[in-house]
UniProtKB/TrEMBL annotation:
The keyword Transmembrane helix applies. Residues 1-169 form the G-protein coupled receptors family 1 profile domain. It comes from Salarias fasciatus. This is G-protein coupled receptors family 1 profile domain-containing protein. Keywords: Cell membrane, G-protein coupled receptor, Membrane, Receptor, Transducer, Transmembrane, Transmembrane helix. Its main location: membrane.
Length: 280
């Protein structure tokens, strides 16, 4: 039923695109979705109310509707759940194909063809088996024409259809692939931020242990601080504008008079004044 509704939507968008917005409104779309669920409910409830029955079907290895128990309900369910939607789907896409417009120009049409083909391929054997069993039971009173292996195979095809649809959408839909790539990028970014935060926390923990006077001297040596590394080799860092020991006045003078700067550094506990020569 959902595939039939999608086929009708594609039919109106391609065959009558100028009036598509006025026909396929939000209210009508919501009404169609509500109708699909109500019809599915009405089709599935009769066996619970006494029309047909549910029993353990050995070839299916599960409890299911006994199609041979009530030929009337089998025909009712097959017509509403399969035959009518299949006719709507085939009509819509036959009209679309007759236009001669390349289908690849319409978003999602090729993918939908594959989904519908998989649906017909997987469900037709199962519905056919159900109809044959119901007809044979109505005529002869028993169902022996369909072998158990055919019942098992048709039921497995129905289950396979639920596995094929996600694969078809994932392999053929660019929109789905882009959304999946975006989700993957978000997950990677989130994991990367978590790893970075954990490393930062570990680094802060190491720094706190190094600055703690109660830390034994036999522990792992701490890396030199930025001020120690800068003051250990004045010639190496003479090209930098600011040093760790420079006060605020030195900063301001350097910004205003870059050619005549005095930076105040401390080495061995004594204040030293070094002339910084301007560089090319």
């Amino acid at each position: 039923l959902t595939l039939a509704a999608i086929a009708l939507d594609r039919y109106h968008s391609i065959m009558d695109c100028l009036r598509y917005s006025s026909r396929c409104t939000m209210w009508r779309t919501s009404a169609v979705v509500l109708w699909i669920w109500l019809q599915a409910l009405a089709t599935s409830c009769p066996p619970l109310l006494g029309w047909s029955s549910i029993r353990y079907v050995a070839p299916m290895y599960t409890c299911a509707i006994d199609w041979a128990a009530s030929p009337g309900y089998t025909a009712f369910a097959a017509v509403l759940s399969y035959l009518l939607p299949a006719l709507v789907i085939l009509f819509c896409y036959a009209k679309i194909s007759s236009t001669g417009v390349p289908l690849q120009n319409h978003h999602g049409v090729t993918r939908l063809f594959m989904v519908i083909f998989a649906f017909l391929l997987c469900w037709t054997p199962y519905i056919s088996v159900a109809l044959v069993q119901a007809t044979e039971t109505a005529i002869s009173g028993q169902s022996t024409l369909i072998p158990s292996s055919a019942v098992t195979f048709s039921y497995w095809l129905v289950l396979l259809n639920s596995d094929l649809n996600p694969l078809l959408y994932a392999l053929l839909s660019k929109r789905f692939q882009n959304a999946l790539q975006g989700l993957r990028a978000k997950v990677r970014a989130h994991v990367g931020s978590m790893v970075g935060n954990s490393r930062q926390i570990n680094k802060e923990g190491d720094d706190s242990r190094c600055n703690d006077p109660r830390t034994p001297t036999t522990s792992r040596p701490c890396p030199p601080s930025s001020s120690e590394s800068l003051t250990s080799d004045n010639s190496k860092y003479s090209s930098s504008i600011f040093t760790v020991g420079t006060d605020l006045q030195g900063h301001l003078c350097e910004v205003c008079h870059p050619g005549n700067i005095s930076s105040h550094q401390y080495a061995g506990g004594k204040k030293q004044t070094n002339k910084i020569q301007p560089q090319d």
